[in-house]
Amino acid sequence: MASIKASIPKGTRDFGPVEMIRRNHIYDTIKSVFKKFGYQEIQTPTMENLDTLTGKYGDEGDKLIFKILNSGDYMLKADGLKQKGEELSSKNLLPLISEKALRYDLTVPFARYVVMHQNEIAFPFKRFQIQPVWRADRPQKGRYREFYQCDADVVGSNSLLNEAEFICIYDEALSKLGLTDFTIKINNRKILTGIAELIGKPSQIVDLTVAIDKLDKIGLEGVEKELLSKGFTADDLQTLKPVILLAGTNEEKLAQLDTILKTSENSLKGISEIREVFDYLASFKLNKAKIELDLTLARGLNYYTGCIFEVKTNEVTMGSIGGGGRYDDLTGMFGLQNLTGAGISFGADRIYDVLEELNLFPHTTQESTKVLICVFGKEEEKYALPLLASLRAQHIHTELYPFGAKIKKQMQYANDKNIPYVIVIGSDEMQSGKLTFKNMQSGTQDKLSIDEIIEKLMIS
RNA sequence: GUAGGUAUAGCUCAGUUGGUUAGAGCAUCAGAUUGUGGUUCUGAGGGUCGUCGGUUCGAGCCCGAUUACUUACCCCA
């Protein structure tokens, strides 16, 4: 059989033992905070029905959904399409050849889950979920085609206490991971909606948000240029300008908005929601997080309706490492009306890259195995088996190097694997009952009885 | 979808205006050391220079195409 080059699809990665220790460190930290705030874990399937996912992420998002090809001979269906006289476009063909897709995020599958299990769920339902998601994007720095999200969402509670707690969760988890300078940006879609109404273009809310979201990247001029090209007028820009150029403390910004947007009912609602979140937050003590009201924060996903969040680290150059917000009608698409939800997501892979760049992973010389038993022959191997069992019975991570390799090779294995202790058993040891016990770090070794060895390993 | 960059040993990379048999470090294996790793020393294996074509007496190097990877844009975690 001809051999093929070993490779994996671009944007995907293998994770070795060291990486897994680090990744689990991130998951475990975030998970413990989620639990502390009363969130319970669920998982959903890797694939969803394609129609569950389409239409939830905007046009751009839909393009990035990985579709799964149906089994069977789909070419026949293409022929059927042709015979019916319909155009053989990928748009027409797609529903015929694909009805499943890989999940694109965790929020939409969660909404689907809530609808399907609504009779078993006690509301408000607080769930967290840590699973990979897939996007058919072009990979680049900090962007993968397979990556993990760590989501916490609550449905069935419109209290803004949830929003305030999300900020606490971000703060606690990221501080615990060792980040010392990061900003949680907050905004409210209702303010943006209000502005769109104010200038009489409520249907162009998406164009508006996408453009002003880029302010810090392309500057005011760039934003204006983009908006003009989308059909906004110079007058519109005049209305918009004081809002997106807002400066000062969060309190000052809110006070200014009160006057600027006093004619927009929607905007005022959004402003008061943000005030309420800040009021809740006043009772909590944050660790390292900076909270910033940012009117240019928009977020691409178009199901958000209330407060929205985004988290950025100020220590390295990296896209957002988390985001979320409130969505009032995500379950409505699946037939369950009037159920509000809100949630946040941690981008675990980006957080990994940040921690690595800042050298923030705990460098505990994580030893998987504590002691390796080396034997000289078949007899010794047999002699070692009861010892192996009793070490493990004491919960000491122990390996026996199977008979057949030179001692040198066995020692090298212990060294490569960072195993701190080695027991050597040869004919001398079997005769005397005193085994050679070597400390690999110091290089010293003694002849000790089995009980003495166990005792040493237990206390070290 | 748009625009750049890169492709040489398992890995990271040198390779002079285009000139004999393409190099280094790391890794691997063997020996110095037949009961001892990590340090040290000695040696060995490992390459259709991404692929196809062109220019040339001669191409790793120049030109064209192609593929893969990568960075940025769009968008996003």
From TrEMBL:
GO terms for molecular function: ATP binding; histidine-tRNA ligase activity. It is found in: Cytoplasm. Residues 23-386 form the Aminoacyl-transfer RNA synthetases class-II family profile domain. L-histidine binds at residues 105-107, 135, 149, 153, 299, 303-304. Its EC number is 6.1.1.21. One of its GO terms (cellular component) is cytoplasm. Signal peptide: none annotated. InterPro entries: aa-tRNA-synth_II, aa-tRNA-synth_II/BPL/LPL, Anticodon-bd, Anticodon-bd_dom_sf, His-tRNA-ligase, HisRS-like_core, HisRS/HisZ, HisRS_anticodon. Transmembrane segments: none annotated. It comes from the Bacteria. Keywords: Aminoacyl-tRNA synthetase, ATP-binding, Cytoplasm, Ligase, Nucleotide-binding, Protein biosynthesis. HAMAP family: His_tRNA_synth. Belongs to the class-II aminoacyl-tRNA synthetase family. PANTHER family: HISTIDINE--TRNA LIGASE, HISTIDYL-TRNA SYNTHETASE. Homodimer. This is Histidine--tRNA ligase. It comes from Pedobacter puniceum. The gene is hisS.
